[in-house]
Amino acid sequence: IDFATRKIAKLLKPQKVIEQNEDSFTIHTNSSLRNYFVKFKIGEEFEEDNKGLDNRKCKSLVTWDNDKLTCVQKGEKKNRGWTHWIEGDKLHLEMFCEGQVCKQTFQRA
């Protein structure tokens, strides 16, 4: 992600909606800059198109790690993925790629 996009993204207050139906999940992330949607089933690898984010395609696998949803992505970048978990009324997201880590916290509306 380029420098200008990172600077703008820091100012945004995205809305995240996670829907669960048994082992199937849908995650919507909406902001005034970009919207992103991903749908997956726990334990099943799927092709993910990160159009609107970093415009990369990768193979993703989401699993439970205790009470955290953890995604490992295989593609042109190494050691890439994310982890979601809830503490109290906050949703935490930690994204990682090639040794870099980005953390976001969402407040329940």
From TrEMBL:
SUPFAM superfamilies with a match to the protein in the record: Lipocalins
Domain named Lipocalin/cytosolic fatty-acid binding: residues: 2-108
InterPro entries: Calycin, ILBP, Lipocln_cytosolic_FA-bd_dom
Pfam families linked to this entry: Lipocalin (PF00061)
Domain of life: Eukaryota
Key words, A-Z: Transport
Gene Ontology MF terms: retinoid binding
Family affiliation: Belongs to the calycin superfamily. Fatty-acid binding protein (FABP) family.
PANTHER family per record: FATTY ACID BINDING PROTEIN (PTHR11955)
Entry protein name: Retinol binding protein 7
